[in-house]
Amino acid sequence: MKLIRVSISVVLVFLITGIITGCGIYSFSASGKAAFESVHVGQFENRTIEFELGTLLTDAVIDMFISDNSITVLESSRAEAIMTGTVISYQREAHEFDLSDNVSKYAVKVSIHVRVVRANSDDVIWEDDFFAEGIYQADSETEEDGQSRVIDFLSSDILDKTTKSW
């Protein structure tokens, strides 16, 4: 009987210890610690014929960092990292057709290249290409709606690449 009590006590101690240490702090959040705490986002170069695309993307990336609040956006002289980007390509294509073979949806497709370097050493922190498409209804939306969706997707992807650990 004494052996059973000791065994139960040992099992309870291990169980309680496992619960306390194994289940202490856990999160389903994808956020992690970035390799830097501040960034300067330079004006994205635009190699397409879409006039304001570089500016719109630059502004969206800055806004995404500010709203996420994980990295401070600063001028280049004070930032730990410098982000530069280039809009490589832009296409608008028919995406879907109705039964009469008329375009019912268009897709705006954008490819960009982004590079992040340490401010004082030019060591590359990360560099990557991104692609996104924004679908919009041909009869009730405009190409700008598709562009807006693409910019949202791309700026979110850049934020994730910079701040998330997965």
CA gyration radius, whole angstroms: 24 Å
Question: What general outline do the C-alpha atoms trace?
Answer: elongated
For the largest beta-sheet, the strand count, sense and barrel status come to: 6 strands, mixed
Structural class: alpha/beta
* CATH class category name: Alpha Beta
Proportion of beta-strand residues: 25-35%
CATH homologous superfamily heading: ABC-type transport auxiliary lipoprotein component
Question: What is the number of domains?
Answer: 1
Characterize the quaternary organization of these chains.
single chain
- Helix and strand succession? HEEHEEEEH
Number of DSSP helical runs = 3
Explain what the structure shows:
- The chain is of the alpha/beta class.
- It has one domain (36-163): Rossmann fold (3-Layer(aba) Sandwich).
- The protein is 35% helix and 33% strand.
- The protein has three helices and six strands.
- It has helices at residues 2-22, 53-68, 143-163; strands at residues 38-41, 45-46, 72-73, 81-97, 103-118, 124-137.
- Strands 1, 2, 3, 4, 5 and 6 form a six-stranded mixed beta sheet that branches.
- Helix 2 packs across helix 3.
- The radius of gyration is 24 Å and the shape is elongated.
- The N and C termini lie far apart (51 Å).
- The relative contact order is 0.17.
- The model is unreliable at 15-31 (pLDDT under 50).
